[in-house]
Inverse folding.
């Protein structure tokens, strides 16, 4: 929260900024918004910035001043009329929505308008969504509900129909890298993290904190650099598989990074490589090899979902990828 000064300070999201600013200028705020887009692109920060702008006592146009007592409380996260509801163990529960309904029966304590942020609304089960729907159908005065949801996840259509939808999108890679540099990350690393996270600063920071990026580089080097088969390479594969298995709950995310990297290679194989990129030290993958590697990752995800041992899943995956790299049918490896 430190340093936030209204929704307009957020990087990117110009469409969402414009839509909200017009509503604020016209004095026609809806009773509920739905912020829909990928994780980590600033939906929650934008929602807090919206709460600041609505309740700022010295607003400058559509922007909060960032200095008045109301703004300072929002910035510190201590405003009594900002309510944030987050998933508990991955789910927004009906008990949370019922408690919210009771709280909305009272007027705001200090602000002109109480702001309620319901994060990751897509995690709701139907009974919780139906309970929230009743609140959206008969909203109490002086309350603004802001729901956030991942655009790739299903949401109850009746919830969407009761909200004004503001779309959020990934940031351009260099813009995301600049955000990361603001968190003290060196420029080169910030750009690589922004690429891995596909323009999501929040996801990039999570990747850095997880410690999986160095392992990703190790596995990519193992697969991408042409080398003759050897016992040393087999040992390197087994050691990498052991490190992958140690990621535990982060292993599906790691599989996603591998899939993303292989898709970028597929784009190159189709003749769309970035201009001027150096290829000499890299394996030149064919389309058939790349499709085989993507299938191998899908199989590994299925095996992991069936609770197969992580070590075995990772070993088999890397040998399949190695086999595809060397042109063996069905990703089979010489090992």
């Amino acid at each position: 929260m430190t340093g936030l000064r209204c929704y307009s300070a957020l990087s990117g999201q110009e469409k969402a900024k414009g839509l909200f600013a017009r509503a604020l200028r016209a004095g026609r705020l809806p009773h509920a918004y739905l912020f829909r887009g990928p994780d980590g692109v600033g939906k929650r920060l934008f929602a807090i910035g919206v709460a600041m702008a609505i309740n700022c006592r010295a607003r400058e146009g559509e922007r909060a001043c960032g200095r008045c007592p109301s703004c300072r409380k929002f910035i510190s996260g201590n405003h009594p009329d900002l309510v944030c509801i987050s998933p508990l163990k991955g789910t927004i529960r009906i008990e949370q929505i019922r408690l919210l309904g009771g709280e909305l029966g009272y007027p705001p304590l200090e602000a002109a308008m109480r702001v309620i942020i319901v994060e990751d609304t897509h995690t709701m089960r139907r009974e919780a969504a139906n309970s929230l729907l009743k609140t959206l159908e008969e909203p109490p005065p002086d309350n603004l509900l802001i729901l956030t949801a991942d655009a790739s996840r299903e949401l109850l259509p009746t919830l969407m129909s009761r909200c004004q939808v503001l779309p959020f999108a990934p940031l351009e890679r260099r813009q995301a890298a600049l955000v990361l540099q603001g968190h003290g990350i060196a420029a080169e690393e910030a750009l690589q993290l922004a690429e891995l996270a596909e323009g999501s600063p929040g996801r990039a920071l999570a990747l850095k904190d997880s410690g999986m990026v160095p392992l990703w580089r190790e596995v990519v080097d193992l697969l991408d650099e042409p080398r003759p088969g050897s016992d040393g390479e087999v040992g390197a594969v087994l050691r990498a598989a052991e490190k992958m298995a140690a990621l535990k709950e982060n292993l599906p995310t790691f599989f996603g990074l591998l899939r993303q990297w292989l898709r970028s290679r597929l784009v190159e194989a189709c003749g769309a490589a970035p201009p001027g990129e150096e290829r000499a030290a890299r394996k030149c993958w064919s389309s058939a090899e790349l499709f085989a590697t993507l299938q191998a990752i899908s199989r590994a995800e299925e095996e992991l979902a069936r609770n197969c041992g992580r070590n075995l899943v990772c070993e088999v995956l890397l040998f399949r990828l190695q086999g595809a790299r060397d042109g063996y049918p069905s990703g089979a490896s010489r090992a």
In short: The chain has 14 helices and five strands. The domain at 7-167 is CATH 3.40.50.300 (Rossmann fold).
